[in-house]
Amino acid sequence: MTQTLLSISDVTKAYPGVIANDAVSFDIREGEIHALLGENGAGKSTLVKMIYGLVKPDSGSMSLRGAPFAPASPSAARAAGVAMVFQHFSLFDALSVAENVALGMEHPPPMRALSARIREVSETYGLPLDPGRLTGDLSAGERQRVEIIRCLLQEPRLLIMDEPTSVLTPQEVKILFETLRRLASEGVAILYISHKLEEIRALCDHATILRQGRNVGTCTPRETPARAMAEMMVGSTFATPARTAHAPGDVALEVEGLSLPAPSAFGTALQSIGFTVRRGEILGIGGVAGNGQDELLAALSGEITTNAPTVRLHGAPAGHLGPAERRRHGLLTAPEERLGHAAAPDMTLTENALLTGADREGLLARGFVRWGAARAFADAVIARFDVRTPGPETAARALSGGNLQKFVIGREVLQRPEVFVVNQPTWGVDAAAAAAIRQALLDLAAEGTAILCISQDLDELMEISDRFAALNEGRLSPARPATGLSVEEIGLMMGGAHDMEVAHV
Amino acid sequence: MLMLEKRPQPSRIWTWATPPLAVLVTMIAGGALFAALGKDPVEAIATIFWKPLFGEFAFYYRPQLLIKAAPLILIATGLSLGFRAGVWNIGAEGQYILGALTGAGVGLALYPLDSAVVFPLMVIAGALGGWAWAMVPALLKVRFGTNEILVSLMLVYVAEQLLAAMALGPMRNPDGHGFPGSRNLRDYPSAHNAEIIEGTGMHWGVAAAVIAVTAAYVLLSRHILGFQIRLAGQAPRAARFSGVRPGRLVVVCLGTSGALAGLAGLFEVAGPAGQVSIDFNVGYGFTAIIVAFLGRLHPVGIALAGLLMALTYIGGEMAQSTLGLPAAAIQLFQGMLLFFLLAVDLLTNYRIRFRKKEAA
Amino acid sequence: MGAIDPALLLAALVVAATPILLAALGELVVERAGVLNLGVEGMMITGAICGFAVAVNTGSPAIGFAAAAGGGAVLALLFALLTQLALANQVASGLALTLFGLGLSSLLGQGYVGIKPPSTPRLDLGPLSDIPFLGRVAFSHDLMVYLALALVAAVWAMLKYTRAGLILRAVGENHDAAHALGYRVVRVRVLAILFGGACAGLGGAYISLIRVPQWTEGMTAGAGWIALALVVFASWKAGRVLLGAWLFGGVTVLQLNLQAAGFAIPVEYLSMSPYLITILVLIIMSADKSRAPGSLGRIFHASQ
């Protein structure tokens, strides 16, 4: 049990402008669940990519069971017994489950035999999967199962899991943990990457904490208070967002019987969704990724139009209006994907300010753009939301995730929305920026804006929402007051464990 | 080892430096090509790029420059709007032919009416003809989602057949002794696209090109529609989020480029070409694609690129007659230009670094 | 109409379909790898002249076809360099390839106008060719016709059953995921592009060496573009490419026969028909929501 499996010593990797890993060292022992903890941008992904052979270190070395380990490619890493479950980017929607699994293996057996193996292993570990189905038709949880099964079939010695719980309900998380513990007891070492402290405390034997590319400490999570780990991870403490109690006002946004066919081949259909949001209230909508979040946002932003009465703004039908008209009526939105959806990557911040602010900020004069005014508006967003950038003429893609997100949220907040719909406001954002964004949402609500916040981060939703509802396979649960909701109850609203079950022993 | 590294934002210097660099590289490669054909490369390049402007017969060639550049610039300006928006109209050649046919059709129908309204009517008909031909791929794309590249291109072949049918059939000159081709519009003053200032090559098509370039410049840099066009091309999802209606943009972009190509066709048929004939079109619609890219899809750049490309046409003809350089070599030369432009364009968005092979 | 023999018509159809079949099959593989190469027309015409010139000089159509495949592949290599290494826009690069190919072919073809190429013999299939009707339609063609048909089966089987086919489809479907799993996206795509170029070259040479057979400038007359449309028509499936090629072959042959029969419509309007039918088919196929490969036309750069 205590033999060292993988030893990493003084590994350094620099990218232009950033040192992703700066002389990082730590050991993983066999049968251990080892947490790699750190904020977005702390260098976790880079480190993991080096172990998996996708990136080569500039200096430093690794050894596996005492022998030098320098995988030149993922297949070399796989041959050495390293397997990885990716957070995203590793499944092929238009291919079947079995084909997806085969692609992650060095020497897959013939398809028929492989399918049988998939059924067998997935039953054993309580992760039922149909090998013949198209991956694109699976739910987020099932897609993760494909990745896990793909790894398990190779009988790995080291299993790397990159933020695996972000796509699971609380019940599914529990089952996943059972599976991982069982694997560990069979001698598999697990490198578990996360920024969720409570999970790590519940699951992991050891934790290595990265901050700005450096190893800033190791600890035994079970014996370390969450707050202490958080301070190591972030480097300082942040005030938790402050809420001021206020009574909600009139109904500002009302959705009734919203049904939509899936807009793309592997999208989710919405099924008679209904809810109301009052002025000054934050309605949180939770749910695992891929359960209709993007579609709901599109139906609210006006990118997809519906029957007029389905969406009502201050009682007036608005379902037939496009995005520009809805903005004119005070409904503003901020989609999840920053680059390419909320903002145009190659355009300047000034141009991106114009993207949604043209009408409400008076940036047009008879169809002609008042560039001076647009620049002033971008400047205002930058100043008010502390966006770190050389100036408004910088391209959006040159900003870090946190700074661009602050810009995108700030751009809408400064337009004084009457109703504000936001999807994943702090996804992939560092803790400081996340805290600032949540505070901005709370302040906006305090000023009387009705806010609908869609998020997969339950902690976030519990922190800021007044009421909570969950999206599950395109259906929305009835909303309930957020205070006093238990994790169990939330999990059930999100669809429970779907069809997962605890691993058969 | 050669490494590509994405720049945080496009390089401003290279955005403007790549077209001249591409021209330079093309001259070198073209020189090698001409040398391989047994011609003196320096003389060939000089004949193409220098002599028409500053040589002995420059007084004759300089007006030609405007005459050849005008249709290229007109068409390329229209195409650039679509290319920026991700709407790929590559059937400008067909719209050019249709504009010529409808425009000339009106002129021929009114023959021999002597009136100041004849030419303006022809201009309108030419623009409408090109516009209508472009509306086919536009509406099919909006309604059925068909690929505008393929449809607009197929319509070029249809237009060429239509041109042949017209030149041999309904539009054939009744006084032409059975020869194919229409009446020569140059002999019909009311319909003739004559030079505005004698001896300069400055006909109405040149004026239209100047107007188109100016309008496109204002549209793209100052107007919200221009912003939407750029946005839709760079980030289609962000464009929809912003409130741009993609279908409307397809119709506007294809319609504009079609109308401008139609105008170019009309000015050509009523002026320099003079008549509807089977081989009236010489591929301006395709060369304009090169012009649009070479001008970086920017109106001012397109004006310069159009003049340069016109120069290669004129210089090419000159090299053909004086050096015996085959016409195909010039066509190849133009194709190479686009190739090299696309290749050196890499420098705008990426930095090239030389690095030692990474330690494994 | 009565003068047209159905057996001859069908036999001619198979011949007329072969060039676009070859080109479309190559493009299908390219698009399945996630690359949109609009330069098919340019590669075809280059193949047409390379094959023609080499066949004339060596006297061997077989060497001619090999040279055509090579010529198409060399041109495709330029496209691969532009789009896979220099990361240029695929639409623009494809157009450039076509314009370049048209220029190159007319330059190369200067000395070859009006020459007759060595003829390609029909394959002797013995008694099979003597079967009434069927023998004329199916068993009395040259080797290339059968090679094209075999290629359809090979591409179909390769995509469906082999590991190489699976990797190719994976790269076309999601290049980021394929990269994350360690597959060489650029290498797979370059190989696919070269295959596409070779196929287009063969298709072009079939026109100049067998179908017409002589060399004229721009003789492919849009066949490359029709091949591109065919891939859309076929929803990226090899079997349906064959079906589509026969349909277009049929339209072409029929209108040629109508022209020859002196039908009361001017020749030009009949000549338009293949292009109009292409547009019509594109409209009809728009109802089929089969998905294009997920990464089609997108630029891949392995950053960080």
Largest sheet of chain A: 7 strands, mixed
Structural class of the secondary elements of chain B? mainly alpha
CATH topology of chain B: ABC transporter involved in vitamin B12 uptake, BtuC
CATH architectural category of chain B? Orthogonal Bundle
- Mean pLDDT metric of chain A: 89
Oligomerization: heterotrimer
CATH architectural group of the largest domain in chain A? 3-Layer(aba) Sandwich
Quick summary:
The complex is a heterotrimer of chains A (505), B (360) and C (304). Chain B has 360 residues and is mainly alpha-helical.
Supply database-style keywords.
heterotrimer, A: 505 residues, alpha/beta, Rossmann fold, 2 domains, seven-stranded mixed sheet, six-stranded mixed sheet, 32% helix, B: 360 residues, mainly alpha, ABC transporter involved in vitamin B12 uptake, BtuC, two-stranded antiparallel ribbon, two-stranded antiparallel sheet, 15 helices, 4 strands, 70% helix
Task: Report on this structure.
- The complex is a heterotrimer of chains A (about 500), B (about 350) and C (about 300).
- With about 500 residues, chain A is an alpha/beta fold.
- Chain A is about 30% helix and about 25% strand.
- Chain A folds into two domains: about 5-235, P-loop containing nucleotide triphosphate hydrolases (Rossmann fold, 3-Layer(aba) Sandwich), CATH 3.40.50; about 250-495, P-loop containing nucleotide triphosphate hydrolases (Rossmann fold, 3-Layer(aba) Sandwich), CATH 3.40.50.300.
- Chain A contains 16 helices and 23 strands.
- In chain A, the strands form five sheets. In chain A, strands 13, 16, 19, 20, 21, 22 and 23 form a seven-stranded mixed sheet that branches.
- Chain A starts with a strand and ends in a 12-residue tail after the last helix.
- Chain B is built from 15 helices and four strands.
- In chain B, strands 1-4 form a two-stranded antiparallel ribbon.
- The model of chain B has no long low-confidence stretch (mean pLDDT about 90).
- The longest helix of chain B is centred in the first third of the chain and has 28 residues, at about 60-85.
- In chain B, strand 2 (about 195) and strand 3 (about 200-205) form a beta hairpin.
- In chain B, helix 8 (about 205-220) packs across helix 9 and helix 12 (about 285-295) packs parallel to helix 14.
- Chain B is mainly alpha-helical.
- Chain C is mainly α.
- In chain C, about 70% of the residues lie in helices and about 0% in strands.
- Chain C is built from twelve helices and no strands.
- The longest helix of chain C has 27 residues, at about 5-30.
- Chain C starts with 5 loop residues before the first helix and ends in a 19-residue tail after the last helix.
- The model of chain C has no long low-confidence stretch (mean pLDDT about 90).
- Classes of the chains: A alpha/beta (about 500), B mainly alpha (about 350), C mainly alpha (about 300).
